[in-house]
Amino acid sequence: MLVSDFDFELPAERIALRPVSPRDSARMLEVRDSGLADLVMRDLPARLQPGDVLVVNDTRVIPAQFRGRRGEATVGVTLHKREGAARWWAFVKNVRRLAVADRVDFGSGLFGVVEEMGAEGAVLWRFEADNGVEAAMMAAGVMPLPPYIASKRAVDDRDAEDYQTLHAAKDGAVAAPTAGLHFTPELWAALAARGVGREVVTLHVGAGTFLPVKAERTEDHVMHSEWGEVPGDVAARLNAARAAGGRVVAVGTTSLRVLESAVEGGRIGAFSGDTAIFITPGYRFGAVDGLVTNFHLPKSTLFMLVSALMSTEVMRVAYAHAIEHGYRFYSYGDGSLLLP
């Protein structure tokens, strides 16, 4: 397939720079094969059935962007994937100024040593600090807002809270699982009263989620891997829910991708490890029956994913409706409920 098949025009004013408050007052576009419905996130319980299960991602965003100096040279670093206690792959601006064994001062007592040079500006770092690497990284780093927000305003203290979900528990993401941003304790209480269950998986979202698809054909695009986990007891409960007639509805594309990575023999199994699953139209879903998700970028792997779930034609109609009716797009934007 051509990547251009997933292109569309998005007016700049549709890009949300701040989330709404309260979080569950965001708008929600319900998308079914039978049509569209304009709702808000608080309507979610009424659109699901008792016995359905929502699956959230409990990853927590870390301050993953750094500015460092080596002599007179300045480098910008965005962490991508953890490889050990103090080792990370990262995307680097001004990467040509670096070489293996270079040592960069990131401030706050944090230093990074270049261990390996990868493709497309990727660098494997070993971080060092006298008083603990994790604490130094937290002090030196800033929240990694997506480029479409960070290019229009500075990161500030509000983002430290706004860019974390209610479910965030395990440090490791460098981008938020943004569909989860819409959930509040009040919304979860209403979902529980409706008889909708909740399960938790992990996918540590990498910075590759922001990278544009440069290939002309989807078959030529290479996904960056991310670490995820579906515990065995969670898999068993999800299989039981489906066997009883309930639907598994992923909260966000990250939850969906790790669930689909765990499918084996037509059932969801335990999973722990890296996944680079790339879902495009024609993919046969084995784990999920629906998806709560935000509105995605043109020609992005995430718009390809939702097109695989609902069909490209249905999603083109849905996105045209969302643009015409003033929905807010991307990480801090509104949500959608996709039920094929």
Please report which band the strand proportion falls in: under 5%, 5-15%, 15-25%, 25-35%, 35-45% or over 45%.
25-35%
End-to-end CA span: 22 Å
β-strand number: 19
Query: What is the mean pLDDT?
Result: 95
Shape: globular
Characterize the main sheet. Answer: 9 strands, mixed
Oligomer class: single chain
Q: What spatial order of strands do you see in the largest sheet?
A: 2-1-19-18-14-3-12-13-17
Number of domains: 2
CATH superfamily of the largest domain: QueA-like
User: So, CATH architecture of the largest domain?
Assistant: 3-Layer(aba) Sandwich
CATH class of the largest domain: Alpha Beta
Structure, described:
Its EC number is 2.4.99.17. InterPro entries: QueA (IPR003699), QueA_dom1 (IPR042118), QueA_dom2 (IPR042119), QueA_sf (IPR036100). It catalyses: 7-aminomethyl-7-carbaguanosine(34) in tRNA + S-adenosyl-L-methionine = epoxyqueuosine(34) in tRNA + adenine + L-methionine + 2 H(+). This protein has 340 residues and is of the alpha/beta class. The chain has 2 domains: 3-61 and 160-339, QueA-like (3-Layer(aba) Sandwich); 65-142, Thrombin, subunit H. The chain has helices spanning 44-47, 133-140, 147-150, 157-162, 185-194, 232-243, 253-261, 301-310, 312-324, and strands at residues 27-32, 35-40, 53-57, 59-61, 65-70, 73-82, 87-93, 103-107, 110-117, 122-129, 170-173, 197-203, 226-230, 248-251, 263-264, 267-268, 271-275, 290-294, 335-339. A 9-stranded mixed sheet has the order 2-1-19-18-14-3-12-13-17, covered by helices on one side. It has a 6-stranded antiparallel sheet with strand order 5-6-7-10-9-8. It is globular. The relative contact order is 0.21.
